[in-house]
């Protein structure tokens, strides 16, 4: 009987991991397809870039606010209930896309979609701690999860582009995502999730989440996430603008620069899952952040030919940064607090995705709408990110805390 229960537990863990992978793939299909959707919306509703850009900034803001104000739900209600709640909201909201045809209506739905993503993503991030047996496995699993996110980021724009060539409206992407989400909910309802016991009588609420921002570990890793996402968003928001009109010898790379970036980022994350289970995470983080900095500096110093090659290449080095920052930040806290800290890091992540490109656009506009100046700001972000990883490598502030939590927290699968 004991062996049967153990086998069932292993099966549940594997199924839960695949459910988590599919959740990240599914929501990436919608969030990372916005860059393809915005030109269609601009054309349909005769909007400016600033107005149409709300389709990106709106959901990112909603994800940020849901992370900081609703992240505690994963600790209070439990991972399973929180994930299903977020997925249900996402499904209902996504199906509503087919009944409307106004920009304000679409923007409202995208904002609600962002809130739903914020809810189930914090639940999923907290769950990863429950289904891994060490902080090292946590980081490896997080890289695999973000690898599937990277695959979704490729699939979503492809589906929209295909729909448009067939005369199908872009909003049917949300119907596809919602239908996939229904399947995930049905499976999630049936699966038994591991239980994470609350270890104190401290109230689990918004106030607790907000107080967590003051914790040096939560704040440090959150700022790392903010800087990284600001650098990454520079690529998928403004790189096409920076290299538009290029007609040199690397025209093929320039034409497919964004898909190349996404493919390298996704592939690199699966490679990162392997690397993080075998090498020192602080060393890998420092080396890869340095490589990102070289790509950005090279693109600024050596002209458009270097830019066309180096900026897409940076996706390979960006691959492991965010999942590792996210994983180590969450792993610095007891499992009973994983929902709250995941929400805090998610807040800074989404804030970086919104504020970084916005600041780059403003600086570019101030210098005659030249995207090169915005990328100078992104290069500064890359310098700051590299400096942070070097500090982490030399000082190693998390070593003791991670070792203690490895011994006291990551024993759920063995018991």
Automatic annotation (TrEMBL):
Membrane topology: Multi-pass membrane protein
Main location: membrane
Subcellular location: Endomembrane system
Protein keywords: Membrane, Transmembrane, Transmembrane helix, Transport
Residues in Major facilitator superfamily (MFS) profile domain copies: 16-400
TM region positions: 21-42, 54-73, 85-106, 112-132, 144-164, 170-189, 217-238, 250-267, 279-302, 308-325, 337-363, 375-394
Coiled coil: none
Keyword set includes Transmembrane helix: yes
PROSITE patterns: MFS, SUGAR_TRANSPORT_1
rRNA-binding recorded as keyword: no
Similarity annotation: Belongs to the major facilitator superfamily.
Protein name: MFS transporter
Organism: Paralabilibaculum antarcticum
Lineage: Bacteria, Pseudomonadati, Bacteroidota, Bacteroidia, Marinilabiliales
